[in-house]
Amino acid sequence: MTEAILFMLGIGGVCGILLSFASKIFYVYEDPRVSLVESNMAGANCGGCGYAGCSAAAQAVVKGEALPSVCIVSGAEGAAKVAAVMGMDPGTAESRQAYSMCDGGVRAANKYHYLGVTSCGAMALVFGGQRDCHVGCLGLGDCVKACNFGALTMGKEGFPVVDENKCVGCGACNKACPKDIIEVKSMSDKLLKFNQINDPLAPCSQTCPAEIDIPQYISHIKNGDYLAAVQTIRMRNPLLLSCGRVCPHPCENDCRRGIADEPVSINQLKRFAADYEMNSGSRVPIKCAPDTGKKVAIIGGGPAGLSCAYFLRRVGHQVTIFESMPELGGMLRYGIPEYRLPKKVLEWEIEGITKLGIETHTNVRFGTDFGLGSLVAAGYDAVFIGIGAWKDHALGIPGDDLKGCFNGIKFLSTVSALVSSGISKGDTSIREKMKLGKRAAVIGGGNTAVDCARTMLRLGLEKVYMVYRRTRKEMPANEVEIVASEHEGIEFVFLAAPSRVVGNENGEVTHLEYLRMELGEPDASGRRRPVPVKGSETLLAVDTIVTAIGQAPDASFKEETSRRISELTLTRWSTIDNNPATLQSSIPYIFTAGDAATGPALVVDAIGGGRRAARSIDLFLKGKKVEPVKDSLQKKRIPESVFKTISGVQPIKRAVMPELPVNRRLDSFVEVDLVLPEDEALKEADRCLKCCRICYNPDKKSA
Amino acid sequence: MGDYIVLAISCILINNILLAQFLGNCPFLGTSKKMETATGMAMAVVFVIVLAGIITWVTELYLLKPLDIEFLRTLSFILIVASLVQFVEMFLKKSIPALYTGLGIFLPLITTNCAVLGVCLINIKEEYSFLEMLVSSFSYSVGYGLALVLFAGIRERIILARVPKPLQDTSIGLVTAGMIAICFFAFKGMV
After folding, report:
1. What's the mean per-residue pLDDT of chain A?
2. Inter-chain contact A23–B90, Cβ cutoff 8 Å?
3. Which of A24, A212, A663, B168 is deepest in the core (most CB within 10 A)?
């Protein structure tokens, strides 16, 4: 008997000692908070939270993937205890919710017809989960079965629909889905999501520099839910009123309907929705994530800066904008004339953004009134530079400093400042103030040049020429702008290279001398290079000359005598050098986007860039590695979504943009382009095929 | 040599621990939904059974028998197997975290896996020599793994079939297991 007792004690002791040693040798570090969090959960391993047992849930809480209130058994008391362990208020962590990327609409039923199989998982095994589209939803509802909370239902269109009030963000649906169609994401994740090569994206959304979910907002307009459309656009673009007016809509060039018919008037619909919100008299509330306690300085309140500030604010950071001009808006305010983007519209839009709790300082110039050192001293954790490209290229010909010569951006911003300060009606007074003459020549063929020319007509000049060294075909300005300026009576002098400005004895401009050109071999940009014709000097009688032949960022802030800023490298075009995928500059905490980084580009490029920079800044502030988005699309097309022909499209005329008649335009700065009326907008929204990657809804009549 | 082969075949196929002796059914049903988990589990079981076989055999020979306390066999074996599984768990967590997370809750289940204890007790009951004990432990566990992997393969395909609602999941699993057991019954005539 004694032996038996001794034996059991001995064997128990040996096992105990061995296990103690083993636990020392095979020790794996685990965040001590995991076990603390777990001890505050019910410990029932019921799986009601969607995680595999309490310890998995505790790990998710510590990782920040689940809320302190994840445990549905321990209730509010448990949540408060868990929150105390994590050092946060219960419920402050941003909640995550399921959402489905693919919504193939009414075509779901005819697309995925399987022979009696009842689960997506099974389908994924048989055909790799595809019929036609390898990323699309299979529609058999494994996610619906996996949801413990009844938050998912199979919508009548054959795709899962999330009930946001019931979803707790547990991620069970995501695990059940064999194709990652249904994902669990927080609002911040969605705001900073970028197009990837395997996403279900329509051609237009692939091309849009701001990556707006275009079919989604058009479908909201079609359903009459204009404010939902506004919210969809705001997920990607905070400046929808401005973009709806000035965007040259590269998306429409890739519209699938455009293959067989005219493209959908996407930008007009954006403007329609945006104007609807503005005219409704109230703003759609914009949600922001809980404060993170990090501060970011935004230098430059133009489209890139505003976009970056907006997205950073929405994901919970403190943002301050520093602007050198008297008011925010950058090129939108000072470069785009009143008749294209009225100041009061812009003001309403910017007010909506700053109202989110963004601090703004105007009339402060980077490098003069404050520097990098003072920002760091003030406790900013990261800096965004979006100072735009405001320095005009000089013409560099004899006489270009005579009285009557102006530079494009300087000219437009002076006019804009005068227009904002209230003397918009008496155009002659602006003309006199700026000492403009009667006959003007604008040199250049870009949007700035066209804006200068059209502005001068409105200032009461009698004759405006546009002098461009190539032909109309090569003009980089937007087609609509060129057409409008033709209607307004601007005379084009093509194939002309200015060679000299002729002045009188008072130093005032009297003529512009130019050489006639002819087109030679195509150059690197694919445009035929103009070659001067010898002895073809021609005089053009003008008394005002505006040069708009391109801009570059004003890098004078580099003269600030601080060691810090000297580490910021510039390119040879004096744009700020950055990693094109992450937009991080040579100084790790400085990020940059917009014209300051790319050179003169579209407003919508600056908005997209601002958002991309916001993502990198967010990663940087959270102490994560600033990495580019994996398989990022960045305006490239997904090859399988490029069609040569499409069937099932009945030609329907595209909505025509209403315009102010020419005779009412020229005596004022009243907005020229008008918004679509509601019935026209609905008709236009109905033309949208609601494309996705490879599928689309054919017109009903032909179906 | 021939004896060992006969022993191996009889342990793997004829007296299959799962399908002929019906031991270790809970992890059999639990970990057989996916091939990946099943193979992981099979390997963990092979490792644990061989190790447990050796230790218990040594314990029996040098402790229980000389001290004449064979009545403590079951009790002490349970203790040894439980400690061993704890040990394996810690080892996997440190060395092969992927397998550890893959096995998830089923690894601690081996603690209470009757197959492990069963093999240890059979080894003693049959009075195997050390080498025979090694062959039998290894073969029984391989047999377990074979059954588990076969079953997982079948279950992965069953979800493609239209199973009536009352029979779905575990129910059809048990029916299938029964049928495989009947198939294995046919091996009885081999030796």
Report:
1. 84
2. yes
3. A212
- The residue segments making up the domain with residue B166 are 2-189
Q: Which residue from A218, A183, A202, A301 is spatially nearest to A596, judged by alpha carbons? A: A301
Closest CA to B7 of B104, B118, B174, B135: B135
Q: Does B156 touch chain A (CB under 8 A)?
A: yes
| Mean pLDDT (whole number) for A377-399 | 89
Mapped onto helix, strand or coil, the DSSP state of residue A673 is strand
- pLDDT value at residue A698: 82
Specify whether the CB–CB gap between A328 and A350 falls below 8 A.
Answer: yes
A505 falls in which pLDDT band (50, 70, 90)? Answer: confident
Taking the CA of residue B154 and the nearest CA in chain A, the distance in Å comes to: 13
Distance of CA A426 to CAs A223, A457, A464, B59, Å? 44, 13, 19, 107
Find the CB nearest B83 among A8, A15, A25.
A15
Query: Structurally, how many domains does chain A consist of?
Result: 5
- A512-527 per-position pLDDT tens digit: 999 998 888 887 777 7
User: If pLDDT is split at 50, 70 and 90, which confidence band does A702 have?
Assistant: very low
How far is it, in rounded angstroms, from Cα A53 to Cα A38?
10
CA-wise closest residue to A137 among A98, A173, A172, A102: A102
The alpha carbon of residue B157 is apart from the nearest alpha carbon of chain A, in Å, by 8
Q: CB contacts < 8 Å between A and B, how many? A: 61
Q: Do A301 and A169 reside in the same domain of the chain?
A: no
**Owning domain of residue A164:** 96-191
**Residues of chain A with a CB closer than 8 angstroms to some CB in chain B:** 3-4, 7-8, 11-12, 15, 18-19, 22-23, 25-28, 52-53, 116-119, 121-122, 125-126
Beta strand segments in A438-477, E:
439-443, 463-467
Query: CA-CA distance, A587 to A569, in Å (whole number)?
Result: 8
Q: Does A113 share its domain with A166? A: yes
From the list B69, B83, B156, the residue facing A18 with the nearest CB is B83
- State yes or no: pLDDT of A306 exceeds 90: yes
B137, amino acid identity: S
CATH number of the domain residue A412 falls in: 3.50.50.60
More confident: A596 or A669 = A596
Read off the pTM: 0.74
Inspect the interface and report whether the beta carbons of B76 and A117 lie closer than 8 Å: no
Helix intervals (H) in A355-435: 372-377, 408-420, 427-433
Is B159 part of the contact surface with chain A (CB cutoff 8 Å)? yes
pLDDT value at position A267?
92
Q: Are residues A521 and A436 in the same domain?
A: yes
Structural domains of chain B, count:
1
Residue B105 CA to residue B184 CA, distance in Å, equals: 29
Predicted complex: ipTM over 0.85: no
- Distance between CA A429 and CA A423 in Å, rounded? 8
Are both A279 and A346 inside the same structural domain? Answer: no
Higher-scoring residue by pLDDT: A104, B94: B94
| pLDDT, position A130 | 53
CB contacts, 8 Å: A28 with chain B: 93-94, 97
A181/A110 Cα distance (integer angstroms): 19
> Do A547 and A412 fall into the same domain?
yes
Which residue in chain B has the smallest CA separation from A17?
B83
Select from A518, A552, A586 the last residue of a domain.
A552
Question: A436: pLDDT confidence band, cut at 50, 70 and 90?
Answer: confident
More confident residue, A701 or B83: B83
Tell whether A13 is covered by a domain.
no
Q: Are residues A385 and A409 in the same domain?
A: no
pLDDT in tens, B112-170: 678 899 999 999 999 999 999 999 999 999 999 999 999 999 988 887 777 887 887 78
Q: Tell me whether B69 touches chain A (CB under 8 Å).
A: yes
